[in-house]
Specification:
Bound molecules: threonylcarbamoyladenylate, magnesium ion
Distance between the termini: 32 Å
Helix content: 25-40%
Structural class: alpha/beta
Strand order of the largest sheet: 1-8-2-3-7-4-6-5-9-10-11
Order of helices and strands: EHEEHEHHEEHEHEEEHEEEEHEH
Amino acid sequence: MARIIDISREEELAMAEGRRLLIAGELVAIPTETVYGLAGDATDADAIARIYAAKNRPSFNPLICHMADLAMAERYADFSPLARELADAFWPGPLTLVLPLKPEAGIASAATAGLATVAVRVPRGFAGRLIAETGRPLAAPSANRSGRLSPTTAGHVEADLGNRLQLIIDAGPAIVGVESTILKVEGETITLLRPGGIPAEAVERLTGLSVTRPATPGAIEAPGMMASHYAPNAAVRLNASHVEPGEALIMFGAPLIDNAEAAHVTLQLSKTADTAEAASRLYDVMKQADQSGASAIAVTPIPHDGIGEAINDRLARAAAPRPKDYD
Ligand code: TXA
Ligand code: MG
């Protein structure tokens, strides 16, 4: 099993061990403000191959390359003035920019799945410092097996991938709790490839541009947007106003629910109906509902504005028909 180092007690050790393993081409689970990432040196093709293998991830689904700062990101991607404006406003933070790749800069082509673009982001906190210390961009998808819920604690990573990597760096529960917002920036067009920790409205306020949603979500060029993703084992039912016997009930605030006493277990995303709190608890609560042995999971409505867009996106994917339903 993986060694776990807690940065609240042994930050220097976590830094030294993380750096040593990453430079040697090994994988390390790292804390970020969004979710835990399964990190490897983005310039090392063998390390990238290990990431895809550990996650069982299809190799056509490219990885986000994490940078220490904007200057480092500019070595690997072409920034237009608009891209730079976004980076200046939101980095470090939960925003990923899909930009033209500088092909000679050394990112392993497997990391971008051979695309002419690269997804870059600068995470907050320990991860950013680790990247600076290591001096390499780190490719890091969420540290879960492909198609499963993303991990927001070191314990989640250990349960899902603990036998497939050497080190998990523990910084406590992730603060944001859902993945980064992914924007593709082309000329003056900003396309929302994945809603996430930075609300689209904040991007629109900053730039004065409207953010375009892809016409057919799920069919965009980069397929982290596959309809069934972020899936627990139990079936998920959205916008619930009643409970079927044996269902787990996930509440947001205190809506009136028919037959609430029939719930197998009742879990709360945010008593005060705060979407930021709900985002930070989403994956943990989904895992608890899933592990409760309930027949299905019913979720009460959650507003769609701000980070609510990302929460509803993840819930819709969790509720979508699963590939395994068809085999
Ligand atoms: O918050 C996050 O973004 C977390 C933490 C660890 O940073 N990472 C994460 O990575 O969610 P992952 O691999 O689970 O999701 C990356 C998404 C995928 O949907 C992938 O298709 C998309 O980014 N992506 C990566 N490169 C792309 C590219 N060149 N063009 C379009 N989409 C891209
Ligand atoms: Mg993921």
